[in-house]
């Protein structure tokens, strides 16, 4: 029997709800784990422990004599064998005085343990990267042991460490800097243990912080996120599952407004008078529990506690910038098809080059190619003296706005030059509607030919033209593609294009894609159908439609590039970019044309997110470009067809080595049982590469 049977929801709205874009490996893991949970949660309120035990792979500790590759050892300490209360201590090889992180695992109070593979990997990762001494607590599970058993177990470990920490913890463990942490049900547990700690006088331990990772809270009310986020199969949490867990955990006869579940509800405990530790609450945008998690954050604020909320949304500064830029574009794009250059010139701050004054160890000079068409380029040179690749960059702006000297692009190219590192050549080309197709492509290719013939005289001595990359964002990525096609048809003498970096390319067509139809409401979107339509009308030859090959490169009028030696291409897509469907079609078209291509997705990002340096994803993108360039530089064939694929960009997520997984299922009955063991164990830590 499926756990979801008997539950009814209004599904009218959730069918239109965006789904989290996750790697297929994660979606497969989540789907299998969800199915296992649904099967293990019996309708009578008991749990199928035999099934869970079969599929939940348990990791042994590895003492210092058997330290793993990340130099983190672990040992188990038993506190009370009658209630299976024990904890695992993770110790990095770092010898300096380290804080202590007491971690409580998740699992709805009913599943998993400290030894579960996913949590062992997670705690090992924390110990190595924070670094910290991590104490992961194994507590009793429901429904066999109901509230307050879990809270008692957690607090007993805290008291034990306060009294015996000097004997069981490493010598470099600093109990005066202790943090409580947990995820899901473990975060709920961490909160309630923190409340008990505040009411107790500990001798040596001082809890100074609480890390609450997507805490498991709830109530009788059905929140908006619980009602809406019910459709996607890639969600690990659902209302039927959380309801089952609450019934299994709470005292019999209690409802979800019990103070253990609804900490901010009608029966909540007043903590305003407690010295509650500073708290970090992490919320997931596709977590059905996110409304409860935000209420927890607000409740802590109202209780006078120090608290921060971490959720995948744009900072207000970015949203403000995007809103202002969008308003300026809308005013500058006149209905007659011309652009208000006076307004644009007034608001588009132009940065001069800096040949002598070095910023971030990067100098820049401007080189004019043709003053009659304002064709010039800016060369960014880092202080590095080793041989560096050359990146020819084309700025965005819908073919109609901005320039190489625009502040945002000057900062972006300077950042590329410094962090990749590379010699960056940023091309200033003519703009539409004054100059229509193919002027921009002509300008871009003329710069390429000029550098091929004169690179030795205008570029720094350490510029390696045999490792040249084309790059561009938005309209600049469109331009980079078409210039690359021309380069493939031309015999260049010294310049060799080995890669193409396509950042959220500006492609389109007469068809309205799903993403164009859906992503129209938020004011934080820089791109809209009305704006892109205006840009296409301003750029394409008069009388042409959006299925022109310049716009719809993979459409009915597309040029056949299968016979060209097209460079390996990295296509970057944002989850909240209305153009993302066209960008994915471009990637698929490259693959079908026999070209080497990889797709990098940022599920929570808008169009042109990389020009905002305060976004963590902007820094992550630079690192991914750097990795791509390194692969291309080692070989002109960066990715074989089998290696081309889709990646989902999320901080610290890396492809796991599948060969390492073999040890978890070889010898386990049959292959399908082994696969279940592997996937169940990896569900929470699949991409923590140890």
TrEMBL record:
One of its GO terms (biological process) is pollen tube growth. One of its GO terms (molecular function) is carboxylic ester hydrolase activity. It holds the Pfam family Abhydrolase_3. The chain crosses the membrane at residues 664-688. Residues 101-311, 391-610 form the Alpha/beta hydrolase fold-3 domain. InterPro entries: AB_hydrolase_3, AB_hydrolase_fold, Carboxylest/Gibb_receptor. The keyword Transmembrane helix applies. Keywords: Hydrolase, Membrane, Transmembrane, Transmembrane helix. Belongs to the 'GDXG' lipolytic enzyme family. This is Alpha/beta hydrolase-3. It comes from Corchorus capsularis.
């Amino acid at each position: 029997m499926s756990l979801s049977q008997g539950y009814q929801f209004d599904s009218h709205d959730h069918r239109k709800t965006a789904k989290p874009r996750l790697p297929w490996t994660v979606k497969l893991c989540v789907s299998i784990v969800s199915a296992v949970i649904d099967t293990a949660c019996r309708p009578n309120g008991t749990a199928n422990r035999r099934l869970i035990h079969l599929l939940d792979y348990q990791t042994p500790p590895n003492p210092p004599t058997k330290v793993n590759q990340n130099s983190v050892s672990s040992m188990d300490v038993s506190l009370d064998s009658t209630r299976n209360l024990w904890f695992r201590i993770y110790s990095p090889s770092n010898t300096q005085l380290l804080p202590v992180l007491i971690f409580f695992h998740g699992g709805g109070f009913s599943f998993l343990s400290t030894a579960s593979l996913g949590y062992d990997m997670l705690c090992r990762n924390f110990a190595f990267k924070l670094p910290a001494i991590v104490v992961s607590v194994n507590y009793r599970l429901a429904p066999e042991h109901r509230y307050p058993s879990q809270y008692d177990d957690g607090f007993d470990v805290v008291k034990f460490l306060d009294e015996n920490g000097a004997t069981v913890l490493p010598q470099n463990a600093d109990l005066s800097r202790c943090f409580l942490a947990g995820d899901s049900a473990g975060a709920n547990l961490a909160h309630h243990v923190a409340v008990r700690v505040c009411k107790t006088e500990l001798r040596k331990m001082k809890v100074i912080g609480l890390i609450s990772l997507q805490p498991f809270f709830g109530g009788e009310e059905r929140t908006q996120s619980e009602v809406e986020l019910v459709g996607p199969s890639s969600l690990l949490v659902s209302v039927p599952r959380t309801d089952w867990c609450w019934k299994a955990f709470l005292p019999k006869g209690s409802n979800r407004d019990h103070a253990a579940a609804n900490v901010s509800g009608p029966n909540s405990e007043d903590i305003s008078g407690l010295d509650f530790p500073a708290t970090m609450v992490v919320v997931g945008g596709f977590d059905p529990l996110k409304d409860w998690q935000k209420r927890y954050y607000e409740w802590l604020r109202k209780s006078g506690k120090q608290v921060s909320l971490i959720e995948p949304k744009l900072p207000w500064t970015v949203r403000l910038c995007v809103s202002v830029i969008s308003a300026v574009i809308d005013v500058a794009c006149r209905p007659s098809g011309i652009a208000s250059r006076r307004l644009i010139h007034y608001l588009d701050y132009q940065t001069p080059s800096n040949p002598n004054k070095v910023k971030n160890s990067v100098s820049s000079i401007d080189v004019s190619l043709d003053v009659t068409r304002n064709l010039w380029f800016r060369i960014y040179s880092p202080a590095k003296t080793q041989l560096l690749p050359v990146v020819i960059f084309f700025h965005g702006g819908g073919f109609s706005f901005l320039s190489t000297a625009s502040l945002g692009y000057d900062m972006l190219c300077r950042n590329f030059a410094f962090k990749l590192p590379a010699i960056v050549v940023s091309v200033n080309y003519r703009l539409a509607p004054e100059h229509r197709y193919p002027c921009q492509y002509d300008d871009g290719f003329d710069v390429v030919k000029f550098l091929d013939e004169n690179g030795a005289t205008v570029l720094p001595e350490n510029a390696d033209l045999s490792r040249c990359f084309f790059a561009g964002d938005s309209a600049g990525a469109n331009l980079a593609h078409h210039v690359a096609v021309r380069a493939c048809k031309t015999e260049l003498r010294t310049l060799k294009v080995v890669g193409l970096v396509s950042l959220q390319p500006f492609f389109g067509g007469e068809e309205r894609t799903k993403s164009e139809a859906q992503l129209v409401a938020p004011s934080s979107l820089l791109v809209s159908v009305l704006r892109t339509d205006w840009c296409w009308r301003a750029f394409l030859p008069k009388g042409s439609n959006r299925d022109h090959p310049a716009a719809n490169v993979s459409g009915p009028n597309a040029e056949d590039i299968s016979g060209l030696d097209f460079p390996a291409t990295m296509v970057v897509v944002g989850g909240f970019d209305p153009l993302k469907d066209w960008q994915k079609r471009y990637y698929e078209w490259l693959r079908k044309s026999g070209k080497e291509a990889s797709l990098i997705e940022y599920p929570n990002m808008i169009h042109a997110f990389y020009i905002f340096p305060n976004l963590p994803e902007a820094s992550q993108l630079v690192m991914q470009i750097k990795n791509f360039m390194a692969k291309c530089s080692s070989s002109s064939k960066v990715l074989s067809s089998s290696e081309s694929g889709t990646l989902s960009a999320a901080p610290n997520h890396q492809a796991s080595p599948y060969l390492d997984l073999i040890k978890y299922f070889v010898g386990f009955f049959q292959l399908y049982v082994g696969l279940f063991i592997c996937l169940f164990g990896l569900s929470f830590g699949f991409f923590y590469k140890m």
